[in-house]
Amino acid sequence: MPTVLRPQSGLDQTREDDAREDHSRRMTVNLSVMILCLVLLGAGLFVVDGLHRAARVQACVEAGRSTCPIKGPPAPALPGTN
């Protein structure tokens, strides 16, 4: 028995269009959320690295060492210690 093809009604076509738009929107939102998560992960790693470096410098200073890797402008010389 041959298969009879019937034309899609306007309602069926609208449902397919809505499904395509919904899928496209979900993909866009998923990509946006993934990018946001990666940015937050990178920012978190940056902060943790900074805190780790600060803790190492603090431990060095507390140990009384004079060669600690402190970044920034050099400390001014004390008067009379040329």
Key phrases:
about 80 residues, mainly alpha, rod-shaped
Structure characterization notes:
The protein is mainly α and 82 residues long. It has a domain at 16-65. The chain is 65% helix and 0% strand. It contains one helix and no strands. It has one helix at 10-62. The longest helix has 53 residues, at 10-62. The model has no long low-confidence stretch (mean pLDDT 83).
Short structural description:
The chain is an all-alpha fold and 82 residues long. It has a domain of 50 residues. The protein is built from one helix and no strands.
Mean pLDDT: 83
Assign the structural class, choosing from mainly alpha, mainly beta, alpha/beta, alpha+beta, or little secondary structure. Answer: mainly alpha
Overall geometric form: rod-shaped
Order of helices and strands: H
Radius of gyration: 32 Å
Helix segment tally? 1
Please outline the major beta sheet. none
What's the count of strands?
0
Tell me what portion of residues adopts beta-strand conformation: under 5%
Detail the poorly predicted runs.
Answer: none
The first-to-last residue Cα distance is: 107 Å
Task: Bin the helical content.
Answer: 55-70%
How are the SSEs ordered, and which strands pair?
Layout: H1 10-62
